[in-house]
Amino acid sequence: MTAWAPEDQAVLSETYALVLTAGDAGHDGVEIGMVVVDGNLYVRAYRGTRSRWYRAARDRGRGRIQVAGVTHDVLLQTRDLELSPEIGAAFRAKYGRLADALVTSPQARAATIRIDPALADRPGADVTPSRTTSATAAGSHSNPRRPRRQMKRLPSGAA
Question: Fewer Cβ atoms within 10 A, N terminus or C terminus of the chain?
Fold first, then answer.
């Protein structure tokens, strides 16, 4: 586990939400709330461990976050987390009643992810996080050379 730098912790604590992309940058991200507790960054899936983005984070274990116009490579830890009551208290303090389901739902608590910076794990990595363009930060498709994948519709009755 690598703790976030104090200046990153301040930005993360003051920012309302981040955009998390699990795996490759070619996938769309999800905008979610987050909290910092004891120098660690946490997010929770409102719909629990069946949430598509939670499963992607669990399966891939790596990704990127965009927060305050900066993109960070990250490690996504879903297993063997110690879920202290301080995490729920931090969600409630930051989001008020909007956090009720994240705090009280056993499914949401089970879908807690700790997000660690990945830079320390990559030898020779550029230690300067990259700035995103305003279009990317707003959630538009980030790779113009790779077309968005369209979901195929199945015929009625197909499973």
Answer: C
Q: Per residue in 43-52, pLDDT tens?
A: 999 899 999 9
* Res. 33: pLDDT tops 60: yes
Q: Is the Cβ–Cβ distance between 45 and 56 less than 8 Å? A: no
In a domain, 118, yes or no: yes
**In what helix (H) or strand (E) does residue 63 lie, and over which residues does it extend?**
strand 62-67
Would you say residue 10 lies in a domain? yes
Domain count, the chain: 1
> How far lies 121's CA from each of 23, 103, 138, in Å?
16, 31, 28
**Nearest-5° angle of CA 67, CA 112, CA 18?**
10
Contact 118, 75 (CB under 8 A): yes
What pLDDT digit, counting tens, does each position of 96-131 carry? 988 888 888 899 999 999 999 996 544 444 444 444
Show the tokens assigned to 39.
């120098």
pLDDT tens, 47-105?
A: 999 999 999 999 999 999 999 999 999 999 998 888 889 999 999 999 998 888 888 88
Give the domain extent around 22: 6-122
| Alpha helix stretches (DSSP H) within 27-137 | 52-60, 85-95, 100-104, 106-110, 134-137
